[in-house]
Amino acid sequence: MATLAKTAFEIDPFDVSRSELYRDDTWREPFARLRAEAPVHYVPDSEFGPYWSVSSYKPIVEVESLPDLYSSETGGITIANFEVDDPNAVKMPMFIARDRPVHTAQRRTVSPAFTPSEMTRMSADIRRRTAEVLDTLPWGEEFDWVDTVSIELTTGMLAILFDFPWEDRRKLTFWSDWAGDIEIIKNPELRQQRLGHMFECGSYFRRLWNERVNQPPRPDLISMMVHSDAMREMDDHEFIGNLILLIVGGNDTTRNTMSGLAYGLEKYPDQRAKLEGDPGLIGNAVSEIIRWQTPLAHMRRTATADTELMGQRIRAGDKLAMWYISGNRDESVFGDNADDLQLDRPNARRHLAFGHGIHRCVGARLAELQIGILLEEMAKRRMRVNVTGAPERVAACFVHGYRKLPVEISRY
User: Can you give the pTM of this predicted structure?
Assistant: First the structure.
């Protein structure tokens, strides 16, 4: 079994689940060592219990490609054991955390919302809303890019996907933040608050569900669930679970990539100049920005049988964390400059930020469309985002993102 030595005070420097690594943006060095020395590494003790770190590209793809051997359903999709460790926990199944055949049927229900034809249908509205948000921004004055742009654009998109009451759309952001914060598992009081907010979310959506049961099918996600054989009979807990999946998947990922876009272009001014000089780079830049940011740092699987992964013996029941954030920095795939933002990177689309295999993000096309349109509309206005202070980052090893990012905009 591969192990790496601990430092003083029994803090394992290769326990990459520690929240401060992401709060302080110091995660690159331990992952670089893991990829070099122990790409499949056992952590016997962490605040989330023992787990295997899978930190390089090839074994992540191997795990993702064997969904019957590495289960999403047995222990969930995050390193936090919300349901496993607490006998009183309320289970809220979601299709990303289900195995075949349930996963296949439920995913098939919502996938029509994300087809190429739907992307074409929605693109004009996405562009209109993006233009409206950008046209309200104050030039030459400091503001928070996360709240004013990233959250507003992604929350509006979610509201449209659900046909959710527009005046209440910020509830979606609020529920998403509570649902995606795995650090809450460490605090029983916060766990209870989280549960209350999730039931509030479920109650609100159940009202929308009941309104649409007797209405003709429509192209919003709730109507698709209502009128599908695979999802119409969900109980309340599974209903909430799938809502949480769609809300977090549609909010946190795109939102944090939009924030990473602003921060990354500031951090790499040569790349910003390249993009400003050639808007034709936008298509590839979208993939590279998603790779560089990696808005969800990991997904978790649980071994269903004894097996071997890159020479390491995995036991049935072992937890594996697939660190997308590290696989997207794998030098053997993306080169020695994998830590850098390179907007014309030739293989940027090989990134793992959307996952791989049967659980690959169902909304990947929509995320790419929103980010691409944001870059196009910024280019039309010759808008440059200048970061004016240090970002406040999410202190967690699941959602890899930003709480605040102070900026000013100028013209180039």
Answer: 0.91
